[in-house]
Design a protein that fits this description.
It is built from 9 helices and 10 strands. By secondary structure, it is of the alpha/beta class. The chain folds into 2 domains: 197 residues, 2-enoyl-CoA Hydratase, Chain A, domain 1; 48 residues, Orthogonal Bundle (Lyase 2-enoyl-coa Hydratase, Chain  A, domain 2), CATH 1.10.12. The strands form 2 sheets. Strands 1-2-3-5-7-10 form a 6-stranded mixed beta sheet, sandwiched between helices. It has a 4-stranded mixed beta sheet with strand order 4-6-8-9. It is globular, with a radius of gyration of 19 Å. The chain starts with 5 loop residues before the first strand and ends in a 10-residue tail after the last helix. The structure holds ligand LHQ. The site of ligand LHQ has 24 residues, from α2 and β6. Ligand LHQ binds next to α2 and β6.
């Protein structure tokens, strides 16, 4: 599949997916969703060990393209639930279920579903000039793409409700202070910081990181006893992995490990 609305490449185990409608702050259309779906399927099979999602131009993603035919202006009977069911919910789950770390490299404004897609990634790194906007209330909607699930878990109900009911911009520095995102870095350092993070994760024990994200995301739904069982089972699996053998051998030989991701 050739892409018109995104860029995708995978080099040296680093997959890079760039939302590429800069004139519209990379807002999602139905066509863009199809391309992202295709690219994420490729990431699973092309040898990638980390995925970086970012935006072209001055924005990360402005959420749903409000002019796309999926939500034609003035059309009162449009079924937004269908758009969520077909596009946004599967995308959130695909990112969460990708068996490797996913970095959201938030280069500029992330609004609506664009903000919540960033926040469902495993590590969110943002340029200082970037911002997060829960724009939904401004157009009479509630936060989707997992926002009502992710936000209270990340920042608690007080801040989740303030952010979503007011829909004001939250700058990247404050987002990092609040624990909404992993890191905020100066704009000049942003590309190098993203590259360093991706390079480091591409050489990490991928299977262990995949099990780590699965365990942490699922922890909210399990009891401590069930979580301990899950940790036992996952550790049993990882204990038989090439990367565990390599990690221990490297530690004992006082040399850096060479992980293969399995
Ligand atoms: C856009 C958009 C946009 C189209 C900027 N659409 N053109 C799921 C299921 C189904 C349906 C509904 O929604 C959802 C989930 C959602 O995502 S709902 C939330 C949708 N997103 C928004 O409501 C955000 C709308 N955008 C904004 O509030 C602002 O553009 C932000 C705060 C993101 C950035 O503001 P500025 O930096 O001042 O940029 P701008 O407003 O001048 O935008 C630049 C261009 O991008 C402009 O186009 P133009 O041709 O006039 O230069 C905007 O119209 C276009 N654009 N967001 N979502």
């Amino acid at each position: 599949m050739g892409y018109e609305h995104i860029l995708y490449e995978s080099n040296a185990a680093i997959a890079r997916l760039t939302l590429n409608r800069p004139d519209k702050l990379n807002a999602f259309t139905t066509a863009m969703h199809a391309e992202v779906r295709d690219a994420l399927a490729r990431t699973r099979t092309d040898g990638s060990r980390v995925l970086v999602v970012t935006g072209a131009g001055r924005g990360f993603c402005a959420g749903q393209d409000l002019a796309d035919r999926a939500v034609a202006p003035g059309e009162r009977r449009v079924d937004l639930g269908e758009s969520i069911e077909k596009h946004y919910a599967p995308l959130v789950l695909a990112l969460r279920r990708l068996p490797m770390p996913v970095i959201a490299a938030v280069n500029g404004v992330a609004a609506g579903a664009g903000a919540n897609l960033a926040l469902c990634c495993d590590l969110v790194i943002a340029a200082r000039s970037a911002s997060f906007v829960q724009a939904f209330a401004k157009i009479g909607l509630l936060p989707d793409s997992g926002g009502t699930w992710t936000l209270p878990r990340l920042v608690g109900n007080a801040r989740a409700l303030g952010l979503t009911m007011l829909g004001d911009k939250l700058g990247a520095a404050e987002a990092a202070e609040w624990g909404l995102i992993w890191r905020c870095v100066d704009d000049a350092e942003f590309p190098a910081a993203v590259e360093a993070l991706a390079t480091r994760l591409a050489a990490a024990p991928t299977l262990a990181l995949a099990r780590t994200k699965q365990a942490i995301y699922g922890a909210w739904e399990r009891s401590l006893a069930a979580q301990l069982d899950l940790e036992r089972d996952a550790q049993r699996e990882l204990g038989a992995s090439d990367d565990y053998a390599e990690g221990v051998a490297a530690f004992l030989a006082k040399r850096p490990p060479r992980f293969v991701g399995r």
